[in-house]
Specification:
The chain is α/β, with parallel strands linked by helices. The chain is 52% helix and 10% strand. The chain has 14 helices and 6 strands. Strand 2 (149-155) and strand 3 (159-167) form a beta hairpin. Helix 4 (76-102) runs antiparallel to helix 12 and helix 6 packs parallel to helix 11 (278-287). It is elongated. The two termini are 50 Å apart.
Length: 425
Amino acid sequence: MQRKINGLLLCFSLLGGGIAFVLGELLLDRRPYDLPNIVLVGIYFAIVALGVGIGCLLAEMISPKLNGLSWKQRYLSLSWKLLPLTVMLLLGVGTLSEFVYELNFGGVKPVKNVVMVIDDSGSMSQSDPGNSRYTAAEALVERMDSDNRVAVVTFSSDAAVVQPLLPLSSAGNRDQVMQVIRSLQTTEGGTNISGALTEAMNVVNSDGNGSRGAMVILLSDGVSQFDTSSELNDYVSRGIKVNTIGLALDDPSGSNLLRDIAAVTGGEYYDVADAERLGMVFQQIYDRLGDRTLLTERTDATADSPYYAAVRILALTLIGTALGIGLGIIFDNRHLAKSFGIGGFLSGLCAGLILEFGLSGSSFGDPLVRLIALLVLAGIIALFTLVVPVGEGRLTRRGSRNAGAPSQTADSFPSPRRNRGSKGF
């Protein structure tokens, strides 16, 4: 055995990882058949195994530096047959890792209840003359998942629950909520944010299912008397985020208040100058609702959890190790399985760290982080034969017993056979 590297295998492995990245991003973006995250992530890493595996196989076919010429002559067809086994291995490991990552530990509740708190005070006739806020809220309800529950609170000088929490599991319920929003109109009066958030908390408390988390979307264009140090205690103690939207706010005290409400409760503040953009902002808030996958930024209650950070890193380490061992299985070589497996452990650890500390929710930055993680995953595995020596060594068989013996030709003479009965002369 010796330490060596196949430069072509490194290039093809990176190329395969890059192609897998493109296909994987299309999968994440389009979510065919509305696949659940557990299945989606499993398929993503199966695609990675397919891309890297084909790249490595093609490289060794062209230049068999790691497995030797005898592998190409005798076992190449077997390697192509073993490729699906590695793909299925990564599908299983990726699915299992995502399943564990999505488990809720330490009292974490998935956010399923959404309370929309909408300002309908008189000033909205100038800030939102076209009632775009109602159109945006209705469009969001139409796109929400069937396991969500939604409620609507409106406020001016007073606050009112116009739609109590209602599950969207049926088309009739969804249509009912949309009809309620469609009937809303701008009224007269001031901006009572305190009363609005009190009513929103009453709505949250009305749900007797303790396993469901809640989130509030608060939209306003005005200033209100509000004490963030005392009036948000219930939200903070229960971990309920208030995401705030400031619409066409000219008075900085109004935007500062909404920003403080979001900051105290762990939510996000969105400053919107044009009411036509509200639909995009509502959708952006919803898209970040409880999102927790190995491939995306955590935006639920576990966003700053060191436990889930460790789980992601360990999961990628396991996936990298499985990928390395899977490549060894493809080549039916125990030495390569060892070298690639150890390299996969290290590359998976690096990829996990890159994802954990690189993902930020950016539509441009996150795909770039995933690309870097995949290239690191594929590249370190391919380079690790410089660290752990490799040689020929079948996983499934040792080869034909007489494969190395010269074949007997017609002109050769059989070796003399010893007469066990002869004692000599």
